[in-house]
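$ ./design --mode recover --in tokens.txt
reading tokens...
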């Protein structure tokens, strides 16, 4: 029963992480300028939607103007969960996605802001793959201990272990860089 519950929990977590990875990768591609309409986002105002003030969660309102466009071409867009309080009237380079209300900040800070999500979701998926592939049970561990060379299954699990370390480091470093972003 314990093993079945572990597999079911792992599958559910893998589906959630896969969805997060795909959406974060699409946002990362938009921030990196791979697709979308380039332009400028001008912040009208931002406010904290967490009234307890313990965990700030900002929502911003403003206008997105495509490059080469005029004020008449501007589209009103609400940004939710921005993670920061942009000063009123500030502008930043952005890209509009396939849907008109999908705006992502571009450039280094835009990519860093999305990279940590991709890296952490990949790290969790690699942990799940490692758990599924590695040899289980005491008998399997004894067989592995007596072999001169690790089995193909153990080698594959070790590769996923390396992916966990690499993706985890990228995720943590990009999250720290995101926190170090200048506010002005």
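writing sequence...
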């Amino acid at each position: 029963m314990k093993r079945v519950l572990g597999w079911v929990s792992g599958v559910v977590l893998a589906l959630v992480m896969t969805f997060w990875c795909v959406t974060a990768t699409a946002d990362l591609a938009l921030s990196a300028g791979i697709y979308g309409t380039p332009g400028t986002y001008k912040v009208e105002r931002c406010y904290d939607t967490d009234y307890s003030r313990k965990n700030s969660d900002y929502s911003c309102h403003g206008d997105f103007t495509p490059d080469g466009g005029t004020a008449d071409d501007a589209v009103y867009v609400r940004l939710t969960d921005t993670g920061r309080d942009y000063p009123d009237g500030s502008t930043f380079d952005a890209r509009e996605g396939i849907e008109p209300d999908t705006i992502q900040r571009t450039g280094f800070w835009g990519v860093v802001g999305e990279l940590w999500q991709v890296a952490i979701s990949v790290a969790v998926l690699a942990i799940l793959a490692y758990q599924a592939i590695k040899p289980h049970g005491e008998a399997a561990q004894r067989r592995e201990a007596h072999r001169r060379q690790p089995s193909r299954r153990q080698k594959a699990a070790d590769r996923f272990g390396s992916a966990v370390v690499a993706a985890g480091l990228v995720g943590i470093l990009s999250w720290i860089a995101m926190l170090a972003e200048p506010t002005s």
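exit 0
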